[in-house]
Amino acid sequence: MRKLLFALSLVGLLAGCVVAYVSAITQPPLPPAFEPPTNPYPSGIYAEGMVESDQASGENINVYPEVSGTVKQIPVVEGQEVKKGQVLLVLDDSIQRATAEQLQSQAEAALTLLNELKAEPRKETLDVNEAQVVAAQATLKTAQDALDKQQAAYNLDPKSVSKDALDTAANAVLTAKTNLEVARKQRDLIKAGAWIYDINNQERTYNALYKSYLSASALLSKYTLRAPNDGIVMAINPGVGSYVSGQGAYDTYTQGMDPVLVLGSPQYLNVRCYVDEILVPRLPGPGKMKAQMTVRGSTVKIPLEFVRTQPFVSPKIELSDERLERVDVRVLPVIFRIQKPKDMTLYPGLLVDVYIGE
């Protein structure tokens, strides 16, 4: 029994010595995955940068619809180069199209009525009035002949014609004369054509309906989003069937509103550097400024060409909650143009390290 305990104690002692020896061995450090960026300038300053498309002002072209609706068609794909005026996205415009067609029909009906007023008098209507005048003249002649006959008989023998019959014949003549006068005035009225006030009123009615049609047609065109400039489609956020508005498209992941489409320049890329406000006094002048950027995760160093400075120091925004985020650091945006490397593809939105020197 004692021999067994002694053997176990010896084994435990040896095991402890082995563990202590192994633990004391120092492992050599792993080589870095990539070399960290180094400052190529004697007194250069560091700034974080973000790759973006080349624009004369602003960053990228964010496309928003001016109307709300359901996406019906997206005839472009991400990465596709587009020309100015090319269709990018189509919204469901069935209701607005019907409204525009209705207003167009109303305007055409008003124009037809206006042309009808201007074309008066109509020959067929004037012929009818001329015939009515002739008929009234014949009626007057008949009534006058009957009165003359009764008057002649009455003059020969007052007892041959009653006084009542003679008065009735005289009234018939007066009625016929009045009817003839009315027929002539009606003919003159038709011959004069439409009243100028009726024409002016109908013309204004037509102009109002036509402008309403133009307004509806202009609004109808807003349901089709077209490229404002030549560029490349960098992002399409909604899908067919998604609902979009003037605020953009809802992003399920960030639970925020994003632009419907994002366009960039197909020729050049810029890098927007955010220089810390503490380093702004050390920033060289525009004519002396040089810069070099390093793509993170690689040893590629790319020279940059100064483009412009956005002369407004703004809060540094992280990626969590944009403008609702409380920040204590302010930065000055400086834009450089990138000389594209032949052996590497750069994408807008890529974070890079930039050193700015003199």
Provide a descriptive summary of the structure in words.
The chain has 358 residues and is an alpha+beta fold. It folds into 4 domains: 33-54 and 268-358, Efflux pump adaptor protein, beta barrel domain (Elongation Factor Tu (Ef-tu), domain 3); 60-90 and 227-266, OB fold (Dihydrolipoamide Acetyltransferase, E2P), CATH 2.40.50; 94-115 and 203-222; 121-193, Methane Monooxygenase Hydroxylase, Chain G, domain 1. Helices cover 39% and strands 25% of the residues. It is built from 5 helices and 17 strands. The protein has helices at residues 2-24, 94-119, 123-156, 163-192, 196-221, and strands at 45-53, 61-63, 69-73, 81-82, 87-91, 224-226, 231-236, 243-245, 248-251, 256-258, 261-264, 269-276, 290-295, 301-309, 314-315, 330-338, 351-357. The strands form 3 sheets. A 6-stranded antiparallel barrel has the order 1-12-16-14-13-17. Helix 2 runs antiparallel to helix 5 (196-221) and helix 3 packs antiparallel against helix 4. It starts with a helix and ends with a strand. The mean pLDDT is 86.
Structural class: alpha+beta
Question: Which range does the strand content fall in?
Answer: 15-25%
H/E element order: HEEEEEHHHHEEEEEEEEEEEE
Shape: rod-shaped
> Which CATH architecture of the largest domain is right?
Beta Barrel
Distance between the termini: 84 Å
Number of strands: 17
